[in-house]
Amino acid sequence: MMVHGEIWTAKELFVYPNEYIYWSIQIVMYPFMTGLVAGAFVLSSLYHVFGIKQLKEMARFALVFSFALLFVAPLPIVLHLQHPFRGINVFMTPHFTSAIAAFGIVFFTYGAIVASELWFLYRKHFVEVALPLKEKQDKTIGEWLKFILFCTLTLGEYDISEESLKRDHKAIKILAGVGIPVACFLHGYAGFIFGSVKANALWMTPLMPVIFIMSAIVSGIALCMLTYIMTMEIRKFLASRKMTPTQRFQSKEDLKGVEVSVVRMTAKYLLFFMVFAISLELLDLIFRGYTAVKSWDVLRSVIYGRDFTDIFILQYTIGNLIPLILFLVPGLTIRRTIVGVILVLFGVFMMRWNVVIGGQAFSLSFAGYMHYHMPIIPHDWETFKEGLFGAVGVFILPFVLFWVIAKVFPVFDLKESH
Amino acid sequence: MNRRDFLKNTARVVGGITLPLTAFKIINPRELLASTGDKTKVRWVFLVDTYKCVGCGMCVRACKLENDIPYDAKVTRTWVERYVITKDGKTHADSPMGARDGFTTSKIDLGIDGYEDIKNADIDKGFFVPKLCNQCENPPCVQVCPVGATFQVPDGVVLVDRTWCIGCGYCIMACPYGVRFFHPVYNTAEKCTFCYHRITKGMKTACVDACPFGARQIGNIKDPNDPVTKIIMTERVGILKEEYGTKPQVYYLGLDREVK
Question: N or C: which end of chain B has fewer CB within 10 A?
């Protein structure tokens, strides 16, 4: 009879009988996805709160994307649970000495902030769509549905005078400001889940929440940049295909592609947070080596031996160093940015991997090791959801959601925006 | 509604909610229990005499059968570890199948690395250490459970509610002793309960009854006449992984510094 975790765990030397890699790929995905949510939100707030004008284009986009990601963030945990349908118990009997128990409260608070900020941001748009439809006679079924949807979204508030829009603007600023600490808390607390496990020698450090927040912002900005560039390019491509050659020649100016200045500005913030994240991670590593407590022997053998490729090659070199150079070399181009942000995203993913899987790479006995073999081809529900397919599914879903949500909250082509 | 009314109503609602909440705090069951002075007279503890253990694995078999843990599943509520310390100062340890079948070979189980044969002449010392849940006074597993499905009863034993556990595995991660696992059938967190269903009826645990050498004993530390209490109070006993601050309640006689 197979025990949960047995199928992907290989034990080496002395490991306690009940030890397996219980927290697998979905627990890697959980901080990765929440990190993207928090990061995207912080990026949008940079414009709304601190008024960094160059990020205007990105801000609206990042907020909508953060909203799409938000729905996916709890999914990895649910997929990981042995009893997914009991997940609701966390809201029914939250046991507040547990870090996970606060999830419901933090998550819904954050969700409410993002949703209300979006509403203020798009209120004018809702009214502008709903009003002409209201007056229009003999609506088609599609128009009826659209009318009902946008009518509901206005929440009965049709005042879009100059004055009320000003108030909206103020509300957005406040919400974005309140949202930054909440977003950091949402993710810092994911770091706390790991950092507070005293039984795990690799996880237990008070730096963990801060490291998680910094790398979260890095990954969020990187994903927003990537999606922004991709969407712009796809739009440009689709638009140019629809037009005749003469039109294409004429309307080159109308057809806005990626703005290099926007990308360069965002890249600067990406770099800033990346340097922070790397410094903290290195500080943690140096401190562990210098203090060399009881667990250091086994940690050293994991960090510098067994997981050397995962940590130093994949995470630090490919995921941090190379993108750092790519962004620092002057004259940043779009193509270079795409390569850079993909590597950054990969680096942050590897960081999550090295924390979650790396933290279980050694036994509690400090005298044995466990190796993780992620299920690739699923042969039952468990190897599907806690395998490659489950993880890829979780990663793709926010893009699909974004595509749907962007139909209601248009990210581009808004003449006037906040 | 104008601003003044709004603020007034808000104050009323907030006040209305907080008042019953403060009342709720007054009837906190824990404080009530403490104030009535009805303190429990039992605190279960365990005593392992490692000098007496021969690694036969009778305790592991008895536990699996008593507590409905699938016999061939590679998880167990209690297990026995073998330690062999060689002349070169190296420690070799293993626990094949949790020692369910005892130690049938002198070769050390290295997991995926196969087996290591150790010559008798190279051995300095060797011994067996039975392990089980330490029923900690400060249990980290209870602290981290997000839904309160695992809890400590007043007599010190930590239990799991199989009908409420969501299977997140946080308690398994939080236990420094690795005693927790997922039950292969119920898919909920599972652990040694000191055979709570037996000890509360005046019986001994299954492993204590099964041990032919008296290496395992269970007792009540609050009873000064209990033989286990007497040994713990008068002899030199050790506990496992003290540095985690969990205050484990399984005491060991003859604990070696090499025990992991």
Answer: N
